[in-house]
């Protein structure tokens, strides 16, 4: 039987991937051996999906993809992303519950929550906070390689004191440059009118690749994207999840997924409900308005 020839589009993609690697080696790697982590370079040379991610995000323009790869790999080396783990992040950051992974949207994408009201400007801890965001993204990339995230900015009860434009720009760069093809959509929930001007600036940073993924929603409209079972009560949902640390929440990533989140058997559902009853009893002191306050505030 004759071998089936690769589709023309697949052949073109393979050529683009090979061209990107060759140009990376010739134009970037030779003079920048100290600029990149060797582990990232090795992955770029062996993981076709990684190179494809950069190419796709840059609409298959190799020049633009190379710029993105250079910036991304330099950032990973500068922040030591490959070596970030739970023990390298200050404990109080985990305790605040300002950032965490939990639940799924209606398309089955994992939800990455940012509780904006828990973020307070503090330039002294900005590097640690950036590493903390990278910790969650890197953790998810290893747990669910190739699966996109839906970012939820919960802006309930937030105001100007919770907003820091430099940090917002960093978060955008995480999805625009450092983790290509990671972003499914970005949902901004219950944004105060006083922040309209700030978000006009934010939208200008997103660029055409990400601007189409931006969604503004009221508490009632957010159920268009996320079912009530994964929304907190203050958004009209029924999710009884209450963040606490330790341990890290939602460590049981579940696949396969369906149109409305992970597939759960009846036995698993009953077990989960029982665990939630125990969790609620143990954590009755935790509410959406009472959180462990860090000595240093989060910066947004």
From TrEMBL:
Pfam families: CRAL_TRIO. It comes from Astatotilapia calliptera (Eastern happy). CDD domains: SEC14 (cd00170). Transmembrane segments: none annotated. GO terms for cellular component: endomembrane system; endoplasmic reticulum-endosome membrane contact site. This is CRAL-TRIO domain-containing protein. Residues 101-243 form the CRAL-TRIO domain. It comes from the Eukaryota.
């Amino acid at each position: 039987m004759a071998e089936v020839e690769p589709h023309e589009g697949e052949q073109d993609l393979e050529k683009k991937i090979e061209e990107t690697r060759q140009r990376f080696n010739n134009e970037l790697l030779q003079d920048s051996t100290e600029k990149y982590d060797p582990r990232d370079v090795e992955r770029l040379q062996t993981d076709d999906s990684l190179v494809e991610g950069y190419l796709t995000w840059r609409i298959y323009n190799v020049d633009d993809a190379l710029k993105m790869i250079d910036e991304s790999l330099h950032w990973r080396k500068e922040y030591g992303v490959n070596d970030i783990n739970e023990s390298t992040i200050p404990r109080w950051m985990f305790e605040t519950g300002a950032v965490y992974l939990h639940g799924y949207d209606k398309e089955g994408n994992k939800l990455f929550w940012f509780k904006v009201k828990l973020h307070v400007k503090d330039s002294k801890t900005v590097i640690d906070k950036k590493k903390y965001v990278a910790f969650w993204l890197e953790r998810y990339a290893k747990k669910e390689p190739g699966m996109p995230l839906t970012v939820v900015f919960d802006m309930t009860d937030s105001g100007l004191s919770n907003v820091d434009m430099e940090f917002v720009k960093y978060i955008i760069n995480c999805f625009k440059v450092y983790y290509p093809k990671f972003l499914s959509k970005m949902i901004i929930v219950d944004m105060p009118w006083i922040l309209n001007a700030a978000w006009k600036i934010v939208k200008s940073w997103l660029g055409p690749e990400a601007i189409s993924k931006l969604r503004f929603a009221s508490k009632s409209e957010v159920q268009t994207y996320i079912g009530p079972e994964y929304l907190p009560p203050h958004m009209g949902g029924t999710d009884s999840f209450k963040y606490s640390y330790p341990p890290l929440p939602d460590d049981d990533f579940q696949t396969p997924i369906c149109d409305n989140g992970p597939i759960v058997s009846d036995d698993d559902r009953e077990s989960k409900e029982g665990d939630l009853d125990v969790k609620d009893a143990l954590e009755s002191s935790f509410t959406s308005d009472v959180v462990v306050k860090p000595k240093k505030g989060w910066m947004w």
